Amino acid sequence: MCFHPWSDLTLPLMSLPEIRAVIDAWAELATDLGASYPWVQIFENKGAMMGCSNPHPHCQVWASSFLPNEACLEDRMQRQHLSQHGVPMLLEYAEQEARRKERLVVENADWLVVVPYWATWPYQTLLLPRRHVCRLQDLSGSERDSLASIMQRLLIKYDNLFEVSFPYSMGWHGAPTGPYLEEDCKHWQLHAHYYPPLLRSATVRKFMVGYEMLAQVQRDLTPEQAAERLRSLPEVHYKKRAEEP
C-alpha cells in the first residue's frame, strides 16, 4: 500500500491529513481482511538497510489463516497478566511509563511513545494508546488524528537523529480477528513496534551477530539514554529547517 502519490515523500514529511488517510486505510484493511483471517499484519520496512527494494514509501499487509509466533506469545502473556492482575498488561505498562517519564520520547492526550525497558535495538520504540483499545479499527476519529500527530513527531525525531531518512521496520499488533472476533479479547492492547537499526551515525548500524545470536542480546546504550537523546531532538524536520531563511 503506497502512502502518497509522490515517490520521495516519507511519512515524517507528509501532512497530518495525509498521515490520517494512511491510518484510515490501515483500519479499513484490518476490518476487511479481519472479517475472514485470524491475523492481519500491517508493517513497513523503510529504507534499503531494512531490505526495502521499492523506494516509493509504502507498507505491506499480510493476512494469515493462523496466529504467527509473535502473536501467539503476546496473546498468551497478555491473557496471563489480565488473569493475574485484572488489568491489561500494556495499559498498565503505559501508565507506569507515563508516570516515570525516564523512557518517554513523545506523548499527547491519547498516545505515548517509549523506549521499552526490554529494547534490544538502539532506538527501538513502542507506541501505545492511553485508553484500552484492542484493535486499530476501534480507534475514534480524534484518536486517529492524535495518532497521526504523534507518529509524525516520532518519525521527525528519528530522521533528525542522524539527519537521514531513518530506516526501520515497524508494525501493528492488536487483538486477533476472524473467528476471534466472537471471543473475549479484552486482554489485548493495541500497540506498534518500531525497530530501527542505526547505532552511531547514518551509516553505522547495529548487527545482531555472534554472541547476540548465540547467547544473549547486548545493548549499546540504555533505554533511558536512547529516550533522552530522542526526546531532546527538535520536532521540525531537518530538511524543513534547512529551507528556512
UniProtKB/TrEMBL annotation:
Galactose-1-phosphate uridyl transferase C-terminal domain boundaries: 75-241
Keyword Ribosomal protein: no
Biological pathway: Carbohydrate metabolism; galactose metabolism
UniProt entry keywords in alphabetical sequence: Carbohydrate metabolism, Galactose metabolism, Metal-binding, Nucleotidyltransferase, Transferase, Zinc
Gene Ontology terms, MF aspect: UDP-glucose:hexose-1-phosphate uridylyltransferase activity; zinc ion binding
Location of the Galactose-1-phosphate uridyl transferase N-terminal domain: 1-68
Domain of life: Eukaryota
Catalysed reactions listed for this entry: alpha-D-galactose 1-phosphate + UDP-alpha-D-glucose = alpha-D-glucose 1-phosphate + UDP-alpha-D-galactose
Name this protein carries in UniProt: Galactose-1-phosphate uridylyltransferase
